[in-house]
Amino acid sequence: MNKIPLEKTGIDVCYEKLDSGLELYIVKKEGVKQTYVTLTTKFGSEVQEFVPRSEQKMKKVPLGVAHFLEHQLFQMEDGTDPMEIFSNSGSDANAFTSTEQTTYLFSGVNETLENLGYLIHYVSSPYFTDDSVEKEKGIIIEELKMYADDPYQMLYQKMLFNTLRNSPARYPTIGTIADIKKTTKEDLITCYNTFYHPSNMFLIVVGNVEPFDVIRVARKSEFNEQHKNDPQEKIKIKEVKEPSKVLKEYEKIEMNVQIPKVSINYKLSIGQFTKEQQRKLQAYLSILFQAKFGDTSLFVEQLQEEKVILETISFDHFKVGDYLIYSFMVDTKEYEEFISRFEEEMKDLTITEEDFRRKQKVMISSYIYICDSVRGISRKINNSVIHYQTIFDDEYTFRQSLTLYELNDMVKKLSFKNKSIVVIDTKADSK
Fold first, then answer.
1. Sheet arrangement for strand 11-17
2. Residue 318: alpha-carbon gap to chain centroid
3. pLDDT tens digits, one per residue of 127-166
4. Active-site residues: which are they?
5. pTM for this model (two decimals)
6. Distance CA 224, CA 218 (A)
7. Order of strands, edge to edge, in the sheet holding 419-426?
């Protein structure tokens, strides 16, 4: 077992790789009652074509298979409900699928090792029948229809669809109705056997636990035993070439909303930067946009005072291939005015040294704050593994070393011309 000390936090991440290839990241955090556990496969909705394990040819599966698999794994051959097992010990359990991963998790204060063993057991015990797959299709389609009536979901999905052109990430994680209907038991089995191999998965346990106890439970699991002699193949996934231009620069949709919603989205090409530079770039853009559009920025305060926006601007980013998508969302009755003012503000991407230092200090303190939370530590480890395939032990020094000069230099190398705007407007008969 290796220990990775996270500087300035007093936290050690214990790392172990089992014979099966399953990677374990364990943080013993004394003084807390809750333990937070996640088991993740590096398989999300952006994967649609790949070479199945032990085969040679590419296979294309319907959209939404990763999410379908997440649903299906809660079906146990003996009829047991995994959620009920965790609930009986006072633990909360859940699962989620994103573009890059599918994660199964639980958190609680009791029977941690027993629940850990059961988590590994149910995720590694797929049960697929034609009947159960057909039944699940109806459930997932109803879920998709529910999302279609949610204006925030619509805004998010249209942002993805209009900003991207070729990547499967432009479609809902859940898939489309047509793709859900044509998903077969064989599709699920192929994807499970390929992406749910332990060499493509990792376990994170954060809480008042003994690392060697966690390793013992994982090592003795059937999941590890069954696969410890398997060849650990690198999965071949079809590379999708995504052009720099957005699909649609502007779209307005009418829905049953009282207050219109706007999403302004920038598609930034970052393929020219190394992995380390991309890490820095994301930190710099976080500082820049917090300074210009954060809750306490002059721009936001002015728009609130003039009643152009009702609350604050929320913004987020995600990576797709060689692109960063930055999305700015807001509720506003004056969306044309907001768009005009926002675009004008984006023409000057400079901030003062004082603003830079202030936001840099917030970034450093937020790192320390995150490391006080079992969930925050888990998410930090997860994001590092998914995006960088490593754990950064220098996060404090890294954030402290950032400079305004380097921020300006890196931002100058970006083009903000590829942009897509989505407006969710009030229905005409409701105005």
1. 2-6, 11-17, 23-28, 201-207, 35-41, 102-108, 92-97
2. 8
3. 999 999 999 999 999 999 888 889 999 999 999 999 999 9
4. 70
5. 0.93
6. 7
7. 250-255, 419-426, 261-269, 323-331, 314-320
